[in-house]
Design goal:
79% helix, mainly alpha, elongated, 0% strand, 233 residues
């Protein structure tokens, strides 16, 4: 006797469902324990990640308090007492606070006229890819300033060329060193342009702009007139 079509479809559905149940039972029998372990491991990893974030926030708070305490000691003219906490923070895993501590160590070294030590500290910050780029750029400027008298002019130009451009936050300091390096290599035209560009940038600190105006004038660039034209526009 032929099986009616509807009965045939119902039978096939029932067989299909039974097959799926068998497959599921077989999978759980084979892999159930492994699955439970995987879930437990995943939950543990997630919990560990949340704990790590919490610990990192707390550690950052502690580092900030230590750095502030070191600054207070320096403000009280007690650099000897600030030496140990600064060294500890500089060696910590928090890139931002470590960089700030190293900047401070570099400034202390400059006050002692230890240019070599200061340059090494600033160079370490400039080379650290975990540090935000603006801080790395500032460290490169400070490093170059500390080493300036020992560097060949072309080294200064190559090192700071990317920062000695209008609009860059460190244009004033980098531009002045590059312009003087141009003068040392006999390229008065390039030095004049650089000083003129600095004189026209209101973002450049006033003391640097004043020197730039004077130097540009000596080199035949009328930076004062150009500056007035820029304001008028």
């Amino acid at each position: 006797m032929a099986v009616p079509p509807k009965t045939n479809e119902a039978f096939l559905r029932e067989v299909d469902e039974e097959l799926r149940r068998d497959q599921l039972t077989s999978f759980w029998t084979r892999y159930g324990k492994i699955t439970i372990v995987a879930i437990v491991v995943a939950l543990a990893a997630f919990g560990a990640y949340l704990f790590w974030q919490h610990q990192r926030r707390e550690a950052a708070g502690v580092e900030g308090e230590k750095l502030q305490a070191a600054f207070d000691l320096l403000a009280a003219n007690n650099p000897a007492a600030a030496k140990a906490p600064l060294a500890e923070i500089a060696g910590s895993g928090n890139a931002g606070y470590a960089a700030l501590a190293k900047f401070t160590q570099g400034d202390i070294a400059l006050q002692k006229n230890d240019l070599k030590a200061a340059a090494a500290l600033f160079a370490g910050i400039a080379a650290d890819t975990a540090v935000p780029q603006p801080m790395r750029d500032l460290a490169l400027v400070r490093q170059t300033s500390a080493e300036y008298d020992t560097l060949k002019p072309q080294v200064v130009i190559d090192r700071l060329r990317g920062l000695a451009v209008a609009g860059n936050p460190w244009f004033g300091s980098a531009g002045e060193m590059v312009a003087i390096a141009y003068l040392r290599t006999g390229r008065r035209d390039l030095a004049g342009r650089m000083f003129g560009a600095m004189a026209r940038q209101e973002q450049v600190p006033a003391s640097l702009r004043q020197r730039a105006v004077q130097m540009a004038g000596v080199l035949g660039v009328d930076a004062v007139a150009q500056n007035e034209d820029t304001k008028a526009q």
